[in-house]
Design brief:
The protein has about 375 residues and is of the alpha/beta class. It is built from 14 helices and 16 strands. Helix 7 packs across helix 12. The radius of gyration is 21 Å and the shape is globular.
């Protein structure tokens, strides 16, 4: 069976969706003939092989509104889809919707709906007709949680096509990673608990809310891993609150350092405030190390990953007092941290193991092509 995976970008470009498509492609490459079509952020068309997976990167004149502008992409999609049994498109990516509709592709189309487009309102006016056409055309729509359907402004009419397939995590790669006290060695007070956030420092992550919440707590220090346009603003807010000795901006870490940071933390926090945060894979990365999670009750997949009262605490978005109360509760209750952490690890092993997730995707591919065992 020939599978064409389609997305904006691919490894080594870093992002949640990029990781998902890479995990699927590498996890099923020994079972199917998989090729990947993506774009260059900017530059000429290039062919590549990443960990055994064939990748074509269509040339692009640049990225605008978070989307590569690539005319060669349309040509390569038509040519590569001609021999594909299934085209698996990862959205949002307006160029892929357009390519599917105008190419005349007659085979099976699987759509992975990772999130709605939230911020680019003007783009949606142009994009919506193509998006709806592709959703009507799709044979199957994969979503990571029930929240992706309930929280979407567009999926309800196509609910009968939706299949819930969570994102997966390669558990052994985390369990075998070297443990290092990358956070502990930077503590200003050795007895303080270590709070961890990791992600891009952008508007929808709610890091400003987290920083203000931290100022209302005690006996803990916050480690912020990642970089982004808001870094200087956040650093100034830390100074204005007088909590410089309790906040550590770590910048971008290597994969090994990041795994060590998850392992060395006491509590993981995902304080996102907008629906752009559709899942939060970083929650799984903390949970695989048995860490309790504090997340927010966004109408997306976020609160479906770490569950309130089972693997952590869920608070309303933008509510710094509620967030501070959750932090205080976990910082000062070791038995509750241990309980939530243990149950977090059990959830990951049961629901998010990469091998189990890829088996679900494989069954969907087989069903779409009529090759599933009866």
């Amino acid at each position: 069976m020939k599978i064409l995976q389609v997305n904006k970008l691919y490894s080594p470009h870093i992002g949640g969706i990029e990781r998902v498509i890479q995990d699927i492609s590498e996890g099923l490459d020994d079972r199917y003939d998989i090729s990947v079509l993506v774009c260059q952020p900017k530059g000429k068309t290039a062919d590549d092989v990443v960990n055994g997976v064939r990748v074509k990167r269509a040339g692009s004149i640049g990225t605008y509104f978070s989307m590569p502008v690539s005319f060669p992409f349309l040509y390569h999609f038509k040519k590569m889809s001609e021999t594909a049994d299934i085209v698996h498109v990862h959205l949002p990516f307006p160029l892929a919707d357009l390519a599917c509709i105008i190419s005349g592709f007659k085979g099976k189309i699987a759509v992975s709906w990772h999130s709605d487009i939230v911020k680019q309102k003007k783009l949606m006016l142009l994009y919506k007709p193509f998006m709806k056409a592709l959703l009507r055309r799709a044979d199957c729509i994969l979503v990571a949680t029930r929240g992706h359907i309930e929280g979407s402004a567009y999926l309800k009419p196509y609910e009968e096509k939706c299949r819930i397939v969570p994102y997966g995590i390669d558990i052994p790669s985390y369990e075998s990673a070297e443990k290092q006290p990358v956070l502990t060695t930077r503590l200003n007070a050795p007895e303080n608990k270590k709070l961890l956030f990791t992600g891009r420092l952008v508007y929808y992550k709610g890091i400003d809310v987290l920083i203000r919440a931290l100022s209302l707590t005690s006996d803990c220090e916050l480690f912020i891993v990642g970089d982004g346009v808001l870094r200087s603003t956040l650093e100034q807010e830390v100074i204005s609150l007088g909590i410089e000795d309790r906040v550590h901006f770590m910048g971008v870490l290597s994969d090994a350092e990041l795994k060590a940071a998850f392992s060395d933390s006491d509590i993981f926090i995902l304080p996102s405030v907008e629906n752009s945060e559709a899942f939060g894979i970083v929650q799984m990365e903390a949970m695989v190390y048995g860490k309790p999670v504090i997340n927010t009750s966004l109408p997306t997949g976020v609160p479906y990953v770490s569950i309130d009262g089972i693997s952590g605490i869920t608070v309303p978005p933008r509510d710094e007092k509620a967030l501070a109360a959750a932090v205080e509760k976990l910082v000062h209750d070791g038995s509750l941290r241990e309980k939530y952490g243990r149950q977090a690890y059990e959830i990951v092993r049961e629901k998010y193991d990469m091998n189990k997730v890829n088996e679900k995707i494989s069954r969907i591919y087989e069903e779409l092509t009529g090759k599933a065992e009866k």
